[in-house]
Amino acid sequence: MKIKRTVEMDLIELLTWAKDNGKTGDFYGVDEDYRVFISAHHGWVQTDNGKKIPEFETKFKVEQEVEITEETKLNIVTVSNDHETYAYENTSIYDLLSEENVLFEEYQAKFIYLQNPDGSIGELIWSKERGLVD
Predict the structure, then answer these.
(1) What is the DSSP string of 21-66?
(2) For position 32, what pLDDT does the model report?
(3) Exposed, middle or buried by CB within 10 Å (0-12, 13-18, 19+), for 74?
(4) What pLDDT score does 77 carry?
(5) Cβ(73)–Cβ(90) under 8 Å?
(6) What letter would DSSP give residue 101?
(7) What is the rounded CA–CA span in Å between residue 82 and residue 110?
(8) Domain boundaries in the chain?
(9) How far apart are the first and last CA of the chain?
(10) What is the model's pLDDT at position 113?
């Protein structure tokens, strides 16, 4: 299963990622204080108004498509057979399903969803009947 995720990168990481993944276009600083335009066709990078960008201090927002597995650490929400919900940060489906997780065994999760950055429930990624959703 693939999901879209927004990550932060400094300028060097952004340029490396863009080159390695053939990405072009506008990329904005986290605080929208900087914009860079990357052109694969022309092989150059342009900034707004000639602003100097501190290469390691400024972070840029980048949306990536990431393949997830049961071992991928995510912010997730589980829903039990009793319709109770629990949120977990930086946890994998594997961690929740492991035999060492006594709470999960008692709780009997029926569904696992991604948790959106605003705390709301996102996309279904696992169900008891189907396992990892495609």
Answers:
(1) HT--EEEEBTTS--EEEEETTTTEEEEGGG----TTT-EEEEEEEE
(2) 74
(3) buried
(4) 92
(5) yes
(6) -
(7) 9
(8) 2-67, 74-132
(9) 5
(10) 93
Are 90 and 114 spatial neighbours (Cβ–Cβ below 8 Å)? Answer: no
Residue whose token pair is 């959106």: 116
CA distance 118 to 74: 14
**3-state SS class at 130:** coil
Q: Check if the beta carbon of residue 79 is closer than 8 Å to that of residue 110.
A: yes
pLDDT in tens, the chain (134 residues): 888 888 888 888 888 888 888 888 888 888 777 777 887 666 677 776 666 777 666 788 888 888 889 899 999 998 888 888 888 999 888 888 775 655 555 567 789 999 988 888 999 999 888 888 87
CB atoms under 10 Å from CB of 122, counted, come to 16
- Give the Cα separation of 134 and 124 in Å (integer): 10
Cα–Cα nearest to 35, from 6, 65, 14:
14
Write out the two tokens for 7: 């990550």
pTM: 0.65
Token pair of 77, please?
Answer: 């929400």
